């Protein structure tokens, strides 16, 4: 039985496919069309999934999408009616009581301008260029947060777990929590529009001067530079806890509920209009313009926001534990990408084990859709565990060699054993190394298959990476990959973090050993690497450890202000346009000409 | 069972006639009845033993609501003939029942029918709405039907949506 899951008409459009409960492929559209966080319809991702499974769309048994406009319909209608009633009172006053439009008339006038009813089957047939009648699959609308919860539970190692999905919004809900038990998920509570931690974080990110979709991670990286107590009182006013693990926004600070905030993409990167209201300006002063210098005020706002998010997160999770008595936790939703908060969960709640869906953002809902259908709806037995995130395209050595030949570049060939030894030596010598191996990662993190890898012992590596390739804001940290068995030796917590979604404190005595991956507050967003999940990457770090006595490398995504590279061609293009020293792809390597052992000197490509 | 005289609308849902109705099945019809009750009094036939469930559903729906209402009167334990009499004299019928829809069509009675379209999305079918005498109720009924059909079909148009929805 084949099931295709889709996240469409939304940021991070993606597709996933399973066969008899086994995940065969999951991938974001952005990796193919090279548009960051691409929204719209994931045609290329779907085509890849079908190729990976060796089937045509006509052979798919079930197709689902992670949205259900009918969900919570009565709440949407009531919200709209209440809102329009208030508007009508205002209009009535301003027009001398002659508005006469009625609640629904005004709403539908407005909707008519923007709404186009979507039909998934029509879109699928049109984008894949097939006859609609040929698609025999049963179609499913899976509510957004149920898809998140399914992605955090059915592919987790837990038979029973507490579950939390937390993000901006989806299907009128921002936060949903409950219990997963074998083949069912019971919803215990949900927080509805317009209250949302995701909206709070995005609004503040915009206020600090980072306007793009996905910029929230920058604020998380900025937070350790500030004083979290500076504005914590203000943030406790902006978002307040309620009984039952709930919370509410002080809506005076936001525009989305009253005036609406537009989001547009036109098949490209999503852009979101201003969410924060003038109350933010009254409270914090003028918003920072994009590109202006960062001051202590922005750093303090970021720190206070991060602290308040953690307070809210632990408030929800402590209630969830109290309500369920469970100590295993499944986590998903865009806010679950906040790895700083995730890393503190075990310290601040009774939970003992955590599974975070590797693609915790909306991209991961395509996986959730597949398993909600397979396990939740069709009641098929569970059995697949998502231990890594290597579900994207992969390329054989023959395919890589063909691309290298086509590029006309000189390349070297190594045996399986040699390739990691030679690469480890290059890293130890100070090279900036592209590392392209196996199947591409799903989700925002490069996990050793589409990575740039360098020596973490050198404090200057951050600057070198930023100057040569990444061009990121200097306050943003780089992350370590560590052999799993050394986690306790280097970090203050040892819960596995195979998909780089946890930030732990680096042990004080080790910070000087790995300065390039130790953030200003002594933390590191680690990836714990095991041979079972990624044998070649494990071997690379082992070989580096054999050379240096340090079982850690710096791992950053293989890209330059674009989506992570997908194909050998993308990798070669990125290698050529940046000042990377060496690129390993499969068992091959290409080097900048004239590269000597001391690779940190600049070498221009001849 | 009692009912005042004067214009009224009626809500007919087979779900409430079941021995153990589910609250979630009542939420949307009750929401629409409540919203339209701003313009006309509603009657809602039901078995007496299910009235508590309806109360609970309204408690959930009306939390924090500020809209005006002419009231929704529970008609407890009326028989089939009485119910049919109420239906045929109503200014507006709101229903989830296709049999009531057929009756409304046969007698050309103003009727809103909550159902599902071919894609499985909630939609509203309208019949003889132009026969509603009260202008505001007529406009609201049509607007309401359009709103539900649009929202349940998804307001996410290609390349644009507003976070206010």
Strand-residue proportion of chain A: 15-25%
Overall 3D shape of chain B: globular
The count of DSSP E runs of length 2 or more, i.e. the number of strands of chain B, is: 7
Shape of chain A: globular
Structural class of the helix and strand makeup of chain B? alpha/beta
Low-confidence stretches of chain B: 154-165
Q: Tell me the major beta sheet of chain A.
A: 9 strands, mixed
| Cross-sheet strand order for the largest sheet of chain B | 3-2-1-4-5-6
| Class derived from helix and strand content of chain A | alpha/beta
Features:
heterodimer; A: 606 residues; alpha/beta; 9-stranded mixed β-sheet; 5-stranded mixed β-sheet; 23 strands; 19% strand; globular; disordered C terminus; B: 165 residues; 6-stranded mixed β-sheet; 21% strand
Characterize the structure shown.
The complex is a heterodimer of chains A (606) and B (165). Chain A is of the alpha/beta class and 606 residues long. Chain A contains 19 helices and 23 strands. Chain A has a nine-stranded mixed sheet, sandwiched between helices. Chain A has a five-stranded mixed sheet with strand order 3-2-1-4-5. In chain A, strands 8-7-6-13-14 form a five-stranded mixed sheet, sandwiched between helices. Chain B is of the alpha/beta class. Chain B is built from five helices and seven strands. Chain B has helices at residues 23-36, 51-62, 80-88, 98-107, 135-153; strands at residues 8-12, 41-46, 72-76, 92-95, 111-116, 122-127, 160-162. A six-stranded mixed sheet of chain B has the order 3-2-1-4-5-6, with helices on both faces. Chain B starts with 7 loop residues before the first strand and ends with a strand. The model of chain B is unreliable at 154-165 (pLDDT under 50). The interface between A and B is large, with 51 and 41 residues. Strand 11 of chain A pairs antiparallel with strand 7 of chain B, so a sheet runs across the interface.
